[in-house]
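Model: You mentioned two targets. I'll fold them one after the other.
Researcher: Yes, keep them separate.
Model: Target one:
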Amino acid sequence: MLRILVLHGPNLNLLGNREQSIYGTTSLETIDSSLRGLGDELGAELVIRQSNHEGELVTWIQEARRDCQGIIINPAAYTHTSIAIRDALAAVDLPTVEVHLSNIYRREAFRQQSYVSGVAVAQVSGFGPSGYLLALRGLCEHVTHSLPRGSKPEASPAVRGRTNLA
């Protein structure tokens, strides 16, 4: 079974309430529930976490190298500022898909720079909450097709605290 780490960056815990004209009305809990459902359908175990703290996100990325086959990350504002997150993703060398609810390339100039995109296998931007589902489908397909012929991902150990919503 594939094990995928899903990380949500700062302020995403406020989805559904914050700047609805940009981010919509869907809550993070609803996004996570949809991801879990699709993960079950695809045979992927998801570890889903959210933090407003850069160092915590970096630590989770580093820990993923032990037992995850890929990462989906919405670094939120850290997209444009965090070399530490970019370097952690490069260091663990796991296939990563960067997700953004809004199209960052149609927003303010400072939001059009992504430090993460250079180390990600793909970026999904502008599709709202369904972008996470596109990312999960794409990442599972990418990882499955990247495995040596005839091999399967190892079963992962039991997950404690599947979600950690700050």
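Model: Target two:
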Amino acid sequence: MGLFDQGTTTIQATDIQLEPAEAFAAIALIAVAADGVITRSESQGINNIFSRMQLFSDYSKERKTEMQDRLLGMIKNKEIKPLFDAAVAKLPKELRETVFAVSTDLVLVDGDLAEEEEQLLNELYNALEISEAVATNIIDVMMIKNKG
């Protein structure tokens, strides 16, 4: 069973209102949660990335925490598919390759690519309309980066 096949939900993507930064965060969090576990290194990775990005510069630490808690709550409530669809729709086109690279980096930070994570990355690059060649290059670079 894939990440997007889990549970049933009555919430629709159109019911979810996201700002561009929240859309970016939602995709990254869905990627990290793909294998069913968010490790300490993945959690630290998310916080480090968000703290460095201009996209989150207007977010206080408390606001980032509240945003992550809200998005993780939706993921835990099996509202993954509508959240994913809403996030992809709201994400600015210029951030599509960036969120794919960040998501790939985050799922590889634990040194392992679980089957669920690989499936998610395949679905993600397709949903974001990233070419297979670009997606493959990003994955290759992130695998090198996270090798040691």
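Researcher: Noted. Anything on target two?
Model: Residues 61-76 form the longest helix (16 residues).
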